[in-house]
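Before relying on records like the one below, remember that each one covers exactly one chain. Contacts with other chains, cofactors or solvent are not represented anywhere in the record.
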Amino acid sequence: MNSSDKTKIGSPAFIVKSIHKRHRREFLKNGKSKLLWQQIVKDKKTLREYASAMDVLSRNWEKDGDGVSRTEWCRRKLTDYIQKRHAKFCKQHADTEIQPLPANQKLKVLDVGRRVFTVLCQLLRIA
């Protein structure tokens, strides 16, 4: 987590963010999503910890949410993140011809949750 993150150590949000950060770091290190997925599903202790934290967060989301479903929130965040990364890449490689992101292309994500994200968010599961 960065220093501006107000998430309390040990809270469900901290647990989820920490696990996501670890998975991102591993993926960036080796770039092999299938290998990472195999490692993730073998780590039963972390899976239980993650599932428990996500259960608590999902219950809190339902009663404390801002009217946007978790699925829509995730889709928006993913789309925004990928568009910003693409724009940054284009700026850094201005001398190279780079294709714009297709408007209705499915995003490739490592979906560790329910299949509903794949269906409702137009995401393409890679593992």
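The chain has five helices and two strands.
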